[in-house]
Design brief:
Elements lengths: L2 H14 L1 E3 L2 H6 L5 E5 H5 L5 E5 L3 H11 L5 H12 L7 E7 L3 E6 L2 E6 L1 H6 L8 H9 L3 E7 L2 E9 L6 H10 L3 E5 L4 H11 L3 E3 L7 H10 L4 E5 L5 H6 L2 E5 L4 H6 L2 E3 L6 H16 L1
Parallel strand pairs: 2-9, 2-11, 9-10, 11-12, 12-13
Antiparallel strand pairs: 1-13, 3-8, 4-5, 5-6, 6-7, 7-8
Helix pairs in contact: 1-13, 4-5, 7-9
This protein binds adenosine-5'-diphosphate (ADP) and magnesium ion (MG).
């Protein structure tokens, strides 16, 4: 590739909101076989809202107070919900975030756990036969979190995030370009499958711990594929670095943008197939 054609290509891309860190990535994107996408904040808008809460007022007070210490988008949704309900927040004495699982906090003299099945299993909390209700939320594409206070199950808080309007079209275009599209998420299998279905993704890797995301990319590369990773979170940074091409969501974290080879402004997913078209056009001009 001549330096001039690459410069023209990256310039064209930049005008559309595709910011390459270097001309070599414009060429690299031409050779991709697969594209792995994070769920929350990448495929979805990343603005989750509480849709259901099955516990009592005390549980909500303790749960929301505990979540105030978490920076996770799920926590933000819970705090906003409790604020709307005029819940008085109580002071938190101890707080522990357990990546990929949830949180543990101590407040008002009580131990509060909020998180997924893995968290409840680790603390040997009896779900009291509420698995069915949980499955129902998940089948709807909701992220359902379980609450336990002083070791006893106290309810479910379910959160929903909407998909980006252009996500189905972007994914269709990527498939037409011959790419395998895969969703990679820390969320549970059932919720992930429901969201994947809404956007037309048929390959899902769910329940992945933050530190395992990069390993999953390596596994795909070991099958001889050139892989792009698309992500917005701090959790995604190692996977963005590991992938042949790392694509950051412009509305995402600084850490993800730093780790990526290119950034798509406003998190507009249609810019990814567009970047590939610009890459093709650039390469063809060279030949
Ligand atoms: P994602 O890929 O969606 O960013 P994470 O690895 O951050 O996933 O989280 C995985 C799961 O861990 C969440 O779906 C949720 O069940 C649980 N979790 C994470 N953070 C919290 C939190 N602050 N409160 C409750 N549950 C949490
Ligand atoms: Mg994300």
């Amino acid at each position: 590739a001549t330096p001039t054609s690459i410069m023209v290509g990256t310039g064209r891309a930049a005008e559309s909101g595709i910011l390459f860190k270097g001309g070599e990535h414009l060429e690299g994107i031409h050779q991709l076989n697969a594209i792995v996408m994070d769920k929350t904040g990448t495929i979805t808008k990343g603005k989750p809202e509480v849709t259901d809460f099955t516990g009592d007022e005390e549980a909500l007070q303790l749960l929301a107070s505990a979540e105030k210490g978490s920076e996770h988008p799920l926590a933000g949704a819970i705090v906003a919900y409790a604020t709307e309900k005029n819940i008085d927040f109580v002071e938190v004495d101890e707080f522990d975030s357990i990546p990929g699982h949830g949180i543990e906090a101590r407040l008002a003299g009580k131990q509060v756990l909020v998180g997924n099945r893995k968290l409840m299993n680790d603390y040997q909390i009896d779900m009291e036969g509420n698995e069915e209700e949980l499955v129902e939320f998940e089948t709807d594409g909701k992220t359902a979190m379980l609450i336990a206070i002083d070791g006893a199950y106290r309810g479910i808080v379910a959160v929903a995030d909407t998909i980006k309007e252009t996500a189905p079209q972007a994914i269709r275009e990527l498939k037409e370009q011959g790419l395998e599209v895969i969703m990679l998420t820390g969320d549970n299998e059932r919720t992930a499958q429901a969201i994947a279905k809404q956007v037309g993704i048929d390959q899902v890797i769910a329940g992945v711990l933050p530190e395992e995301k990069a390993d999953k990319i390596k596994e795909i590369q070991d099958m001889g594929k050139k892989v792009a990773m698309v992500g917005d979170g701090v959790n995604d940074a190692p996977a963005l670095v590991t992938a042949d091409i790392g694509i950051a969501i412009g509305t995402g974290t600084e850490v993800a943008i730093e780790a990526a080879d290119l950034t798509i402004l406003g998190g507009e997913l249609l810019l990814i197939p567009k970047a590939i078209r610009i890459s093709h056009a650039t390469i063809q001009n060279i030949r």
